[in-house]
Amino acid sequence: MKKTFTAFNLAEQQIAQLDMQLLKRRLRMTEKPCDTTALVNNRELKAFCSNDYLGLANHPELVIALGEGANKYGVGSGSSHLISGHSIAHELLEKKLASFQNIHIPDARALFFSTGYLANLTAITGLARLAQQGEASIYSANLNHASIIDGVRLASAQTKATVILFDHQNLDSLIESLKKDSNSLKLIVLDGVFSMDGDLAPIKKLADIAEKYDALLLIDDAHGFGVLGEHGHGILEMFNIYSKRIIYIGTLGKAAGVSGAFICGPSILIEWLIQKGRPYIYSTATPPAIAHTLLKSLQLIEGDEGVRRRRQLNQLIEIWHEEMNFSKWKKVVSSTPIQPVILGSNANALAAAKLLDDAGYWIPAIRPPTVPLGSARLRITFSANHSAEDLRALIKTLKTIEHQLESEPQL
Length: 411
Known about the structure:
Radius of gyration: 22 Å
CATH class of the largest domain: Alpha Beta
Mean pLDDT: 95
Number of helices: 15
Number of domains: 2
CATH topology of the largest domain: Aspartate Aminotransferase, domain 2
CATH architecture of the largest domain: 3-Layer(aba) Sandwich
Structural class: alpha/beta
Helix content: 40-55%
Distance between the termini: 44 Å
Number of strands: 14
């Protein structure tokens, strides 16, 4: 009799359970460059689901820059940054990224990473190691991204740091906990733009709190970098923040249109992360060609084209607020390109996503654990490459689908 591995049985049972709960995720393969339309199974769909907010992912100047970078530096870095993988392209990119934030963070320095996930793991675990075992407190917002949550959990396991959760929309509990906190290191960690709701963290209040209670403030501005601020420098520029207590994290595969992420902070803390940030120390450096391409992307973000593209995004956001009105579905108020529509149950969200697909739109259903139970949704995102006509056609389709689902028995 053929023996069956226990691990295989467990995986099969638990995947079946996810399927029954309407929580099983499925891959869909695209067949053309990232843009406002996608080719999926030989069908062209209008895409309102990517994080390519400025529409740079297939920008011709970036395509040329990537080829130039490959010709100049090859296609691999060969090793970690601290061995021999740190290229002049990485160095130039880090200096440019630091220049974006140096009027907000004194003596700013930046480190480049292959992903935002690695950047968050490095920053949170590395900073927690500044304190003796059990002498660090980490304050994490309830709705933080998974990479922050995992970084906090890992830091707590490694250093015995105390973890306190707080509501980013009501800071009273955070303040009360900080008042009683005698630990030598206090780290407040949260998203700048919350990726599932599109709302902004109260950065000015948090910077004041960090100053008053001798804490560090780590802001993951993954969905703000490139989009917020006059020059696209992100949430610190938008709110004109200046603080020596801030560690800023931005990703470069969203609005910047390429790949990677960075940590920016006071030079002394960045030097500490180089020494003690294990994901940085033990990861092969991103190909220099990517860094070379990102230098061109940053030039576009800061320049006239970036201004024009952010202006187009703001126009789309205004149209959505003025013209998209639901009878039962809940529209979350957001001033960013992330515009969630809450449907509640997994079944309703999946049904709406299916009807949108039938109508030629790609807007997946977002379900737990990505969002809290009972808040399954459509996460609609805008790109600067969307036109006002594109958005108005989507609005018309959404109104039709809501009416159609209202006419059917509730799921």
